[in-house]
Amino acid sequence: MSQQIMTQGFTNGVSKEEAERTEVVAKASRRRFSTKYKLRILAEMDECTQPGQLGALLRREGLYSSTVRRWRQKREEGVLSGLSPKKRGPKPNPDAALVRELAKQKKRNEQLEKELQRAEMIIGVQKKVSELLGITLGETNEKR
Q1: Residue 106: which region, alpha, beta or left (left: phi > 0; alpha: psi -120 to 50)?
Q2: Do 36 and 70 lie in a common domain?
């Protein structure tokens, strides 16, 4: 008889139709609470005076007492930014702009050094050519 019930569409006390309607999320997503929501829940919790009201509120909202305890601490410290969700992911590097500027300046410095070497080589060649041709160049201020 029990074999017959299982083959008629019931497994573990759940009908096949109900089992098919149950949706399983492939990847759970983290719940994020707005500051407004957190403050509303804290206000409701402050109004709870009867035994069991607090637990009923937590069950109704699907919250853990440890989460609400952190919200209360942040509220008492006056850190309202602590009640807003934190931005996830890598933190921006404040020195990134300086690092980019430094790299840019190093590249420019290398270019200028190459130009200086080229100019010094050209001047050296010009001096040798003037000596070979017997042309005297005007006195330059070589003392620096």
Answers
A1: alpha
A2: yes
DSSP state of 141: -
Instruction: Kindly report, residue by residue over 9-61, the tens digit of the pLDDT.
Output: 445 555 666 666 666 667 778 888 888 888 899 999 999 888 899 999 999 99
Same domain, 108 and 127: yes
Same structural domain for residues 78 and 104? no
61: Cβ–Cβ under 8 A, 6 or more apart, which residues?
A: 41
The residue range of the domain holding 37 is 32-86
Q: 44: closest CA among 66, 71, 74?
A: 71
User: How far from the centroid of its chain's Cα atoms is residue 97's Cα?
Assistant: 17
Total domain count, the chain: 2
The answer to whether 42 and 71 have CB atoms below 8 angstroms apart is yes
Q: Are residues 110 and 133 in the same domain?
A: yes
CA dist 37 and 78 (Å) reads 17
In a domain, 1, yes or no: no
Q: Compute, in degrees rounded to 10, the torsion defined by CA atoms 124, 125, 131, 134.
A: -130
Reported as type and span, the H/E element at residue 98 is helix 96-133
